[in-house]
Each structure stands twice: as C-alpha cells, then as structure tokens.
Amino acid sequence: METDVSEVVLIEADALVAMIDAKLRAPLQVTLGPDGLQRLFSSSGVLSAAVVMEQVV
Question: Which pairs with CB-CB distance under 8 Å and at least 24 residues apart come from 26-30?
C-alpha cells in the first residue's frame, strides 16, 4: 500500500506541552501557520521541547 506521506514527525510529550504553553502565553505572536508552529512539522525527525523552544520563542 503506497501513501503520499513525505514527512514523519514524532513528538515528545514535553514538546507538545511546550507548543501549547507558548501559544497560550503569546497567542498573537505564536501562530499556527507556516511562520509559526507549522514549520516545526516541515521535516522528519523527533520533535523535542528544546527544538520547540528554540524555534518558537
């Protein structure tokens, strides 16, 4: 079975909490689009809290 999936991202629980925390603390500065949280999912790999804090904050 073939799919059109080109990227796979595994999210650590701490990273998910960091994303939600950042969005709640600065809802106008942290966007969901390509200039915000969406860019975290643009490449395959493991998404850690450190990466989220580096990219979002």
Answer: 30/56
Q: Report the predicted TM-score, pTM, of the whole model to 2 decimal places.
A: 0.82
Is the predicted pLDDT of residue 3 greater than 90, yes or no?
no
Contact 19/57 with Cβ under 8 angstroms?
no
DSSP string, 16-43: HHHHHHHHHH-TTTS-SSTTTGGGGGSS
Return the higher-pLDDT residue of 30 and 7.
30
Distances from the Cα of 5 to the Cαs of 13, 17, 27, 44, 46, in angstroms? 23, 25, 30, 11, 16
Using CA atoms, how far apart are residues 45 and 7, in angstroms rounded to an integer? Answer: 8
